[in-house]
Design goal:
There is one protein chain. This protein is about 40% helix and about 5% strand. It has about 90 residues and is mainly alpha-helical. It has one domain: Aspartate Aminotransferase, domain 1 (Alpha-Beta Complex), CATH 3.90.1150.10. The radius of gyration is 16 Å and the shape is elongated.
Amino acid sequence: MKNNAPFTRNNLVQYLEQNCIGTRLLFGGNLVRQPLYQGLNYRVVGELSNTDRVMQSVFWVGVFPGLTEEMLTYTASTIRAFVGNC
């Protein structure tokens, strides 16, 4: 998602969920921000700004091998409708 997008990840995720399209947030993200890493000695190279961006912007759209062409088309058209209305 672009930094200047007229919507947030949460806006899009809520819209998809309201339209029966399953989503999940990225569960790892920037691991050094996780509580487990507090107080541990580890090496970080750079500011990890792209890692933070991924953690704040990425989500998964539910997929599995049993999805039909019709289901995939519905998912794509629902995303296009959301983006087109922003």
